[in-house]
Specification:
about 160 residues, alpha+beta, about 20% helix, about 35% strand, globular
């Protein structure tokens, strides 16, 4: 097992622990895992496979925490309690992708949005350049506000379940 594979295994195990796998607290499971130069990113899924929230993992220590920004502030089910009763979701996945495309055209010319992946209260999209992942951004499902995930660093690899 390479060093990167060991780091990924630690991040996935830590994300599973944070998700409360088998504890009945959140009882979520780890879905997509992405490795970036500054951290690991993991989607946490419900038992039915619905996206619940997003977490980050430290590449060396394996420490895991709720992702900054949208997962904390916009997530209407798993985010901070103050934000759990946010505006109703009026932005569709197709609209979120259009909003993301417009934002990218203005802010990061040459990049395009991937599919809008729904989380409670927001969407997260991969950003692409020449069909390759370069990063991520999120669109609020109630307001259409965009938040670019500038904390990841450069994209390295991805594992999907």
């Amino acid at each position: 097992m390479t060093s990167a594979q060991k780091q990924a295994a630690v991040a996935v195990a830590a994300a599973a622990a944070l998700a409360g796998v088998g504890t009945g607290v959140w009882d979520l499971r780890v879905g997509e895992v992405m490795q970036f130069s500054r951290n690991f990113y993991a989607e946490l899924l419900t038992a039915s496979g619905k996206r619940a929230t997003e977490v980050l993992g430290h590449p060396r220590s394996g420490a895991v925490w709720l992702e900054y920004g949208p997962a904390m502030m916009w997530n209407t089910e798993y985010g901070m309690p103050l934000h759990r009763n946010a505006a109703s979701e009026t932005v569709s996945a197709a609209e979120a992708r259009g909003i993301a495309r417009h934002w990218l055209d203005e802010q990061l010319s040459g990049r395009t949005p991937g599919d809008a992946e729904a989380f409670p209260g927001y969407y997260t999209l991969h950003t692409l350049k020449d069909g390759r992942i370069t990063g991520m951004l999120s669109v609020n499902a109630g307001t259409g506000q965009v938040r670019y995930h500038d904390w990841h660093g450069a994209f390295i690899a991805m594992r999907e379940d």
